Amino acid sequence: MGWVAAYDSGVSLFGGLALAVGTLLAGVVLGFLIARSRRTRARRRPVGPTVAELLHRIVQSAHNGIAVLNQFGDVVMHNPRAEELGLVRNNQADERARKAAEVVAATGEPVEIDLAPLESKGRQPAAVLAEVRMLGDKFTVVDAADTSEAVRLEATRRDFVANVSHELKTPVGALALLAEAVQDGADDPDEVRRFSGKILRESTRLGTLVTELIALSRLQGAERLPEMHSVEVDAVVTEALGRVELTAESADINVTADEPSGLLVDGDRTLLVTALSNLLENAVAYSPAGSPVSISRRLVGGYAEIAVTDRGIGIAEDVQKRVFERFYRVDKARSRATGGTGLGLAIVKHVAANHGGEVRLWSEPGVGSTFTLRIPGHRVNGQQLPVRQAMPAGETTELADRNVGQLRADHGGAT
């Protein structure tokens, strides 16, 4: 029986070894599978910036100027925009920001401060408004924004209100005085007729002013513009000439136009006629008696160009951009004498813009001026219709150049 016991003992030992080996192999396999799974997940997991890195990128690319100050007022972090706005110079915060940071650190309440430049320096913004807030752990953040455009618009609004008040008060006051004069001269027919004529002129001027104010308001977005249609440029020129015919005859101004062009544009005919009429009336108003005013038209680079040229007083270069401002007048005395409202060129500018075009100006004092209204030509399915062959690329692209030589020749070669 001894050999049986020995056999049983050997079998038991062999079974134990087999179990141990099997367990070891299972562990190795399991470990391999786990490791491979982790490597696979690691490969699949996207590698990207940390939250801190993302926050840093946001600060650096922010449109506003941002600077973080410690409890001593030192700049510990800022973005390039902070330097552009003058919030940080040479790694030092603006003194106004530092003082505001001290107040915020003491009270815990945010503070708004004006960081407008104390003196003009190149392209630095004219107005900067900043807010200083607590970040915790004795750190504060200064968030500065360029408010130059908002300040400019507010100044424009104030000027507009002041100008409108003045322009309306003048004819209204005149009407009141003239009405009293009519009452006082009720027994004198000649006086009544004279003052009645003045009342009619002032009331007409007042009505024109109100009409143009309403038109300008609509063009600036208060009301939606009518749908665009195909409009004949020649028809616009003809109607505009008809509107200024009497005014030109009264001023002894000869208005001429070139040959019909066959050009078409996409737009609103009434607005285009109004714009061109304003340019013609402006040319007549600022031209001496007996001088000519001309209209020319052509297609250039997909734009229909209508140019109005006069031999009038001209406009100095330093004020040429201002002539399109509301109520701006080159010659205030002449404009008031002709009943101008100062809104005509502003309306032309907005009509052109609302049609996807522009208005250009060439002028020299004592020589004359050319205003060119440029409107995109008519398109069908996105394609420009070949109404008229555009000028070759090597030729001029502004109608003003066509008239400059003649204008100078008429004035003895003036420059």
From TrEMBL:
GO terms for molecular function: ATP binding; phosphoprotein phosphatase activity; phosphorelay sensor kinase activity. It catalyses: ATP + protein L-histidine = ADP + protein N-phospho-L-histidine. Its EC number is 2.7.13.3. It is found in: Cell membrane. GO terms for biological process: cellular response to phosphate starvation. One of its GO terms (cellular component) is plasma membrane. Keywords: ATP-binding, Cell membrane, Kinase, Membrane, Nucleotide-binding, Phosphoprotein, Transferase, Transmembrane, Transmembrane helix, Two-component regulatory system. Pfam families: HATPase_c, HisKA. Residues 163-379 form the Histidine kinase domain. Gene3D superfamilies: 1.10.287.130, Histidine kinase-like ATPase, C-terminal domain. The chain crosses the membrane at residues 12-35. PANTHER family: PHOSPHATE REGULON SENSOR PROTEIN PHOR (PTHR45453). This is Sensor-like histidine kinase SenX3. It comes from Tamaricihabitans halophyticus.
